[in-house]
Amino acid sequence: MPHTDCKPRTDWNAFADAALSGRPLTVEEGLDVLRAPDEELLPLLHAAWRVRSRYFGNKVILNMIMNAKSGLCPEDCGYCSQSIVSRADIPRYSLLDKESLLAGAREALERKASTFCIVASGRGPTDRELREVAEAVREIRRTMPLKICACLGLLREGQAELLAEAGVHRYNHNLNTSRERYGQIATTHTFDQRVETVERVKAAGISPCSGVIIGMGESDEEIVEMALALRALDADSIPVNFLNAIPGTPLEGAGRVSARKALKVLALFRFVCPDKEIRVAGGREITLRSLQPLALYAANSLFVGDYLTTPGQEVARDHQMIEDLGFEIVRHAPEPAGPRETKSPAGT
User: Fewer CB atoms inside 10 A, N or C side of the chain?
Assistant: First the structure.
């Protein structure tokens, strides 16, 4: 029989209190969140909302992603349609020119995004690609009120500093999965190499962005481990992706995470990383479906428009969803707290 008592069996508000006081959840508490009975989902999300609203109010940050270089990647990431092991039918092209990147930035403004994300496939940028991206970033910064995020793969010594000088605000390099599972997802680079790139951008003064992909066979324990690893890494922005098992990739046919489990994952990340930008990212449309609005009671950010090689939800529907919730789109993204700074809760 389903649990019908109006009082939750777990005091989720205690989890919110812990997050607001700065105490990280234990592994056991994290597992409690992920394994919460479905009938306790709304009390759980209310507790997550207490934390989200303390730091971000009812504001929603929109990000737009541009696939600046597609396919042609020598890495073997099992989830990615652009990898060398993928048979997916996708566009393949080298780095777009400056005018194309500028046009993408203008489109981001039209979509009410405050952060424009330039993404290029590959192991890491060549010196020429880095110079071309930097030149476009300088022009965007000069002419448009946008934050710029770059996602160009593994960075070598000195490359993060060049991006910082050009005006890149944020650099994305996802951990994607747990350390233990990483070798099952990719073998051409390591978990530690990803951490090293995030540390490079932090050292260069760029805001670090790093997240995960949920639905690649990981256990609940591994999901908690990922959240705690990103807390330790002090990522300012954390995209939470839900696997879109693209035909032609090694993970084609992988089972989809339920919408209810996805919402519990978002609540977990809010409790573990209370003052960080938690972004509902790739796969939200096919995983959350009609429950997408509930995600914004834990997350405070999302992508608008298409992803790298898969379509997103119509932008007008995202705007309408945010309006229907009574939330407000942030038109100019706030400067992120530095990697070693601590933001105070609003009103304290």
Answer: N
